[in-house]
Amino acid sequence: MASTDSEIKDEISSRSKNDWPSMYKVILHNDDYTSMEFVVQILVDVFGKSLEKATQMMLNIHNKGKEICGIYPRQIAETKVETVHNLASSKSFPLKSTMEKE
Description:
Layout: H1 5-14, E1 23-29, H2 36-45, H3 51-64, E2 66-73, H4 74-90, E3 96-101
């Protein structure tokens, strides 16, 4: 027997937000040592931002102290944070990245 549109709508509307994975904000924090160019490169390479958007975000990090770089499911957010720390460490920068539940 075929489902009707109203049955499908009822099924969709009965789903709760708990059916979706929790999302996490990945945040970059300002420090006095990491170069602005490196932060821009991280935003382009790790977070897929355009050069223009990455530059704007880097200035926000510099002036405001931190910036949300993206919102992802937990495992992806953890990977982004770890990637930032590994790349920063390889260049001897203390760039800090954190994640928090949205």
